Amino acid sequence: MTTDRVPTHLGIIMDGNGRWAKKRGLPRLLGHRAGLHRLVEMVRLVKKQGIRYFSAYAFSTENWSRPQMEVDGLMSLFRHYIKRRVNELKEEGGRLRFCGRRDRLPADLLEMMRWAEEETRSRTAIDFILCVDYGGRAEILDAVNALVASGHTGEVTEEDLKKFFYLPDVPDPDLIVRTSGELRLSNFLLWESAYSEFYFTDACWPDFDEPELIRALDDYAIRDRRYGGNRS
Ligand code: FPP
Predict the structure, then answer these.
(1) Which residue from 72, 152, 153, 176 lies 20 to 30 Å from 201 (Cα-Cα)?
(2) CATH of the domain at 33
(3) Which residues pair with 2 in a beta bridge?
(4) Nearest-CA neighbor of 75 among 133, 145, 10, 158?
(5) 40 within some domain
């Protein structure tokens, strides 16, 4: 069996902003800024392709260990994005959602995130999911702890646990793209990617343009997805 032509849920690991900047003799933060421009464009391109859910890995649970200046710069970019771009996302039918831990981000940013989620809640053209302070292991642990705290007794099924994930209603990603030539998952959607297809490109994230996206989607469209069975 081949895939439906277009993934329902696309995940992207946006890697290579630092190398993109270094190649140009620029500070790393300008690489992240270029990455943000690319991301804003990508939401439109992904929606144009008919993809219903788009998750982007913007800040991992491990990224806190980066130099404070870089962490602060990334937090400012998140604020900038919410302030400047949420209204146009909303007008285009986009719903903004955040996926990740909510206990370590700056309070003002958390407030802005809640506002943006509320503001766009009724939009249905695309769910744009920003994974911020996200880690797959943290998500599984948080779900286990929440399930235990709920007083659940007896055997735990996948469905029982999934209810406690950050975004339980979002379907698993069909395709995960990683840019910049690294061949790793880096703690992105660990549980949800059990049967995802993977696509890797050498392009650094700020260079991941429409032709790159089309190449990834064309490659996905001819994959043979068997989900562990033999459904050819
Ligand atoms: C990985 O590249 C990228 C990140 C850790 C940050 C990704 C963030 C953005 C694209 C900006 C997003 C902004 C908003 C508002 C969502 P890297 O720095 O690890 O690159 P390197 O491996 O080349 O050093």
Answers:
(1) 72
(2) 3.40.1180.10
(3) 224
(4) 133
(5) yes
Tokens of 97: 């959602």
Confidence (pLDDT) at 130: 98
Closest C-alpha to ligand 1, atom 1: 15
For residue 9, list its beta bridge partners.
53
Binding-site residues, ligand 1, Cβ < 6 A: 14-19, 32, 35-36, 39, 58, 63, 77-78, 81, 130, 180, 205
42-99 residue pLDDT tens: 999 999 999 999 999 999 999 999 999 999 999 999 999 999 999 999 999 999 999 9
Residue 40 in contact with residue 85, Cβ under 8 Å? yes
Cα separation values, 2 from 30, 39, 117, 196, 223, Å? 40, 29, 35, 14, 6
Residue 227 counted as domain residue: no
Domain containing residue 94: 9-220
**CB under 8 Å to 146, separation ≥6 — which residues?**
164
Establish if 2 belongs to a structural domain.
no
Residue 232 lies in a domain: no
